Amino acid sequence: MVENNRVVVHYLNGTVLKGTTPDFFPNRPRFHLQSPAGDKSIEIVTKELKAVYFVRDFEGHPERRDVRGFLKGPAETNQGKKLAARFKDGEILCGYSHAYASGREGFFLMPADAGSNNLRVYVLAAATEQVLMGPAAEELAAKVQGSQAA
User: pTM of this prediction?
Assistant: First the structure.
């Protein structure tokens, strides 16, 4: 039986689509996105994307404020090492990754905020401006938290 993952697809041009996918694999150039209603399916070209957010549900929780940064978490967990990714559009994601390697097309990031609607995020490296690990990731996260408090 094929499991359909709930995903929110963010394109480089700012377009956002929601749906389910039975065939996303990080090493494939395309996958299919079925509308939430299940009435249509479209082909997604991975290189046109910023990221693929695997989510708990499509609505999220608008009243909840996601925690930015690492929440004083450990340097490494069973989900990987601390990592902060700054996208070319300015968004910053903080989390943990086993799969990051410079030169790869993308990598999975597990959000640092366990209460987030995001279960994991597949980040396309071409959409990032900067990817930092360890103490450098913590410094970037601290700067982001400081600028949001101001």
Answer: 0.85
